[in-house]
Amino acid sequence: MSRTDLSLYEHTGGQLDRLCRVAGFDGKDRRHLELLEGLLGPGGGNSIATAPEWNSNVADDTTPIEFSLAFDATGEYVVRVLGESVGATAPGEFLETVAEPYRLDTRRLDAIADLFLPHEERQGPFTMWYSLIFRPGHEPKIKVYLNPQISGPTMADSLVHEGFRRLGIDAAFDPVIQHALPRGELDNFAFFALDLDGGPLSRVKVYVSHEAAESADVERAAELVPGIDPLHIREFCAVLGGGKGPFEGRPLISSYSFVEGDEGRPSNYSLYLPIRSYVPDDEVARARVLAIMAQYDLDGTILDKAIEAVTERPLRHGVGLIAHVSLRLGDIGSGITIYLSSEAYQVMPPGRRTLLGELR
Fold first, then answer.
1. What is the predicted pLDDT for the residue at 98?
2. What φ, ψ does residue 15 adopt, rounded to 5°?
3. From CA 171, how far away is CA 193, in angstroms rounded?
């Protein structure tokens, strides 16, 4: 069957299935495909040979799916899918279908739903995204992403503050502002996310977008979490982004994770670097990612297997397959995550290589 004969679900489902095999999944477990099909909804049956009826902001080519492979400090691999339902009648429609069979705990979401899921027409690029989390030998988990700017940019701080209050982490709001949003309009709340399970490590996460930031700006953001060495942040920016900034392409993003017992400060900090904005093509991106993985003694052959799971194209022929990379630091869940685009609809053209661009 030709690639262009595939539906969106067939294309992305094949990629996901191969990624899960790279991570060591039992081939008999098909829940990852069942969840992906449910998330995509009826639009998953549409052919990828024709332009989508509705453009998603999940990926550059409007595919409503993005994959990631997390390399945990424990040595485990975790496959994740960030996605958006295509043509759903309501943003929570998928959640309603999986809440009972997957025993989801939606109490925290229920407590803040009126803030982030208003009845009025939405603003910003999305209303609700989902993350499907697959760890070999464990039950799948689900996470929701909400839009702090759903009622407009000027309301974002107030929505996040009230969300913190309702979830019992109100004392952390001012420290988050001081560390991650000190530059006025250049720093903005981008996502508010919740794990939908009831365990003590179930997270509340808040993400901050840093326009035209330098390494020092995200080093300051990381200082909110005790024990983080700023050198890790500095090296991450230098290796993947080519220097200390300012990063004037797609913005750097910080996130803080709060778990049970966190009231005044988060347990973890993550930095997300959109590497596709700072390399001419995916061949250069791969080289930079392998370099940072080597610093943390991570197996680079797994990265190559993951890339092969989602594409057959030469890496030099496009940019954005390796979309961004995150560094997770703190007491829980430390590691590196590589985010891979499905490229269902389009391969973004490469930029022009220069000697400086290849070496920096």
1. 96
2. -60, -45
3. 18
Distance CA 255, CA 176 (A): 10
3-state secondary structure of 154: helix
pLDDT band at 1 (very low <50, low <70, confident <90, very high): low
Q: For 78-86, what is the mean pLDDT? A: 94
Locus of tokens 């700017």 = 149
Q: CA–CA separation, 330 vs 143, rounded Å?
A: 20
What would the two tokens of residue 293 be? 């993985």
- Alpha carbon of 324 to those of 29, 251, 316: distances in Å? 28, 11, 17
> Position 61: which residue type?
D
Pair 69, 306: CB distance under 8 Å: yes
Residue type, 241: G
Backbone angles phi and psi of 335, in degrees to 5: 155, -165
User: Is the N-terminal amide bond of 246 cis, ω within 30° of 0?
Assistant: yes
Task: Calculate helix-pair angle for 282-295, 230-241, nearest 10 degrees.
Answer: 160
Which of 56-60, 87-91, 272-276: highest mean pLDDT?
272-276
How does DSSP assign 233-249, residue by residue? HHHHHHHHHSSS--B-S
CA distance 120 to 129: 18
Phi/psi at 234 (5° precision): -65, -45
How far is residue 141's CA from residue 111's CA, in Å, rounded to a whole number? 20
Give me the phi and psi of 79, to 5 degrees please. Answer: -100, 135
CB 280 within 8 A of CB 287: no
Q: Which two tokens stand for residue 130?
A: 């989902």
pLDDT tier at 177, thresholds 50, 70, 90: very high
What pTM value is reported for the model?
Answer: 0.95
Judge residue 355's burial from the number of C-beta atoms within 10 Å of its C-beta, 0-12 exposed, 13-18 middle, 19 or more buried.
Answer: exposed
CB 202, CB 105: distance < 8 Å? yes
Q: Are 113 and 159 in contact (CB under 8 A)?
A: no
Q: What percent of the chain has pLDDT over 70?
A: 95
Q: Is 329's pLDDT higher than 90?
A: yes
Reported as a single tens digit per residue, the pLDDT across 244-275 is 999 999 999 999 999 998 888 999 999 999 99
